[in-house]
Amino acid sequence: ILKSIRQVVDERNQKNVWLHGFPGSSKTSILFTIAEELRAQGRLAGTFFFSHNNVDKTDYVVPTLTYQSALACLSVKSEIIRTITDDPALLSHLRPESSK
User: Fold this and answer.
1) Cα–Cα distance between 76 and 83 in angstroms, integer?
2) What angle do CA 73, 78, 79 make, to 5 degrees?
3) Furthest CA-CA distance within the chain
4) What CA–CA distance (Å, rounded) separates 60 from 3?
5) Which residue has the higher pLDDT, 95 or 83?
6) Under a CB-based contact definition with an 8 Å cutoff, are residues 44 and 38 in contact?
7) pLDDT tens for each residue of 31-87
């Protein structure tokens, strides 16, 4: 499975990988391994792992990936800062529902 995912990411210039399967089938471990390899290569902007225990946490996807992307790429960080400076109300839309 790791080899197949590496081929998809490398040969097809895939920007997203979605792996699904039964609980306990090592999906998280597999993708965590791939993510760490991509991070070491400077090819990972961010990750978000869903859990069947927290299906209501989808509000965290955008803020989490935005934050991680800003850390990974200075030009993205600059754009985020510029965009928020231009429209501070955007922050209220990024905040997860549970913290509003």
Assistant:
1) 10
2) 100
3) 45
4) 30
5) 83
6) yes
7) 899 999 998 998 888 888 777 777 677 778 888 889 999 998 899 999 999 999 999
Residue with tokens 């989808």: 58
**Number of separate helices (H) and strands (E) present in the chain:** 5, 0
Q: What is the DSSP string of 53-97?
A: T-TT-GGGHHHHHHHHHHHH-HHHHHHHHHHHHH-TTHHHHHS-G
DSSP state of 24: T
State the amino acid at position 19 in one-letter form: L
What is the separation of C-alpha 45 from the centre of its chain, rounded to a whole number of angstroms?
7
Query: pTM score > 0.85 for this model?
Result: no
